[in-house]
């Protein structure tokens, strides 16, 4: 049985993650390779009333509580969904992963080593992709998209600049860093090349067509 890949797609909002995730999923399907899309944190975390109080209104008595909730959500998601999929040969593309928690919680005042400790020995992705974009472009896109419903943190113009810097501190050394202002097909081709090579490496040299 072929082994599935865990592929984490990271980046600031507006960097084109959704577009590239969908294109990559289509590539898997066209090559008749099982693949599923997911996201972290999951909706279970995002809809928690304590999380929503902070995201919507900036109210949080203890940021460590949110970090613990995020870590628990990630571990449960991995053990009940991601790991079983990979073992049966299904690749997983996740929109965000541990590195988002490390970057965002550092912005919120927690040391990233503490957040990493909370997350324990969770698996490192087979491929981590970071779509890099100018924070000012992100800010404009988020405000244009969300209007009056912009999240509490996103009202701070420092946010995206600082989080971008924090991402670059915590991403794995082997991260595929891509300029998100390139045209979407060029970005897709770079991602597919990386994925095809990794799939071949982990499955005994079984090659996959690049389309």
Automatic annotation (TrEMBL):
GO terms for molecular function: dTMP kinase activity. InterPro entries: P-loop_NTPase (IPR027417), Thymidylate_kin-like_dom (IPR039430), Thymidylate_kinase (IPR018094). It catalyses: dTMP + ATP = dTDP + ADP. ATP binds at residues 11-18. Belongs to the thymidylate kinase family. Coiled coil: none annotated. This is Thymidylate kinase. It is an enzyme of class 2 (transferase). The keyword Lyase does not apply. It comes from the Bacteria. Phosphorylation of dTMP to form dTDP in both de novo and salvage pathways of dTTP synthesis. Its EC number is 2.7.4.9. The gene is tmk. The keyword Nucleotide-binding applies. Keywords: ATP-binding, Kinase, Nucleotide biosynthesis, Nucleotide-binding, Transferase. Residues 11-191 form the Thymidylate kinase-like domain.
């Amino acid at each position: 049985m072929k082994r599935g890949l865990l592929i984490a797609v990271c980046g600031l909002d507006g960097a084109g993650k959704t577009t590239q995730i969908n294109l990559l999923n289509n590539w898997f399907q066209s090559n008749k390779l099982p693949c599923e899309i997911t996201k972290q944190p999951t909706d279970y975390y995002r809809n928690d009333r304590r999380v929503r109080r902070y995201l919507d209104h900036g109210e949080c008595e203890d940021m460590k509580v949110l970090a613990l909730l995020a870590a628990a959500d990630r571990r449960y998601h991995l053990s009940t969904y991601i790991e079983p999929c990979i073992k049966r040969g299904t690749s997983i593309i996740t929109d965000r992963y541990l590195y988002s928690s490390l970057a965002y919680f550092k912005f919120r005042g927690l040391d990233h080593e503490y957040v990493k400790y909370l997350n324990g020995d969770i698996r490192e992705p087979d491929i981590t992709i970071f779509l890099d974009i100018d924070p000012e472009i992100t800010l404009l896109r988020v405000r244009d998209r969300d209007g009056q419903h912009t999240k509490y943190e996103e009202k701070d113009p420092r946010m995206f600049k600082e989080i971008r810097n924090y991402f670059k501190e915590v991403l794995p050394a082997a991260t595929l860093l891509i300029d998100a202002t390139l045209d979407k097909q060029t970005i897709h081709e770079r991602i597919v090349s990386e994925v095809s090579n990794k799939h071949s490496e982990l499955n005994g040299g079984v090659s996959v067509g690049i389309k």
